Amino acid sequence: MINPIKKTYTINNKVTFAVEIAGEGEPLVYLHGAGGVAWDPFLEGLAQKYQVIVPYLPGTGESTGLEHIDGVWDLVLYYYDLFEAMGLESVNIIGHSLGGMIATELAATDQKRIKNLVVACPVGLWLDEHPIPDVLSMLPDEALEHAFADPNSPYVQAMKEKANTDDVNEKIELTIERVKNLNAAGKFLWPIPDRGLKKRIHRVKAPTLIIWGDKDKMVAPIYGEEFQKSIPQSKLVTLEDASHMVLLEKHEEAINSVLTFFEMNLAKEA
User: CA-to-CA distance for 95 and 99, rounded, in angstroms?
Assistant: First the structure.
């Protein structure tokens, strides 16, 4: 197991990004979803070949300054500022769920900042006939049932055991972390996860890989088709027997898809 190093970057004396970094090689930024950051087998696998950079969304982990961010546009600019502070002129980026929406906004707003884009089950588009459930109002067990295809998988059982710990201090910390994650996510997802991405998504010029679980109960797989139709140079990969946490449930397949995608495009750039 790789132990990521932790760094902190303060932007404009208002927003502080806590960042975890592991691995060596070409920089690869990973933007997490509403559930926060977990150094899981997917990130571990990527760190074998890339320098994986994981910033915590402001308001989560030790990142601060959420109150200074009024919406997605502010957030996008702060991420650009973070990239500049880290010396990243143009980067490869992966985003899951909420992170996928943010990554797509980054690629659409300044087309030169993102080399290659990977999004897994991203939110950001809205289909009235396929409404996305309100994850912010779900109880923890209900959220797990939506996030995983197999409610009895080892990942689900481990998360439930962790949540049901008898250690009072640990339970308090978990509760605080969950509230912080949902509060931060709510700023960009509530009342529905639609901040007008459909007006800008056509601007994405970076080669794009879209990954979806065929049993996604959070964001229906049909949204994958919508993203593919909306983004030029995009490819949709659907992994079987996976729900919203496809990058964890099918981490080996997801890692192989991502590595093949990046290596092919980076070879073209060389």
Answer: 4
The structure tokens listed for 33 are: 């979803």
Q: Name the pLDDT band for 270 (thresholds 50, 70, 90).
A: low
Q: What is the mean pLDDT of the chain?
A: 95
Only one residue has tokens 């592991």, namely: 22
Q: Chain centroid to CA 270: how far? A: 27
Q: Is 39 helix (H, G, I), strand (E, B) or coil?
A: coil
Q: Is omega for the bond preceding 191 within 30 degrees of 0, making it cis?
A: yes
Give the phi and the psi of residue 69 in degrees, each rounded to 5: -105, 115
* Identity of residue 74: D
In the predicted structure, residue 84 carries a pLDDT above the cut 90: yes
Query: How many residues would you count in the chain?
Result: 270
What's the pLDDT at 2? 81
Q: Which residues lie below 8 Å from residue 41, measured CB to CB, with a gap of 6+?
A: 248, 251
Q: Are 31 and 53 in contact (CB under 8 A)?
A: no
Mean pLDDT of 212-232: 98
| Letter string b/e over residues 111-136, b meaning 16 or more CB atoms within 10 A of that residue's CB | eebbbbbbbbbbbbbbeeeeebeebb
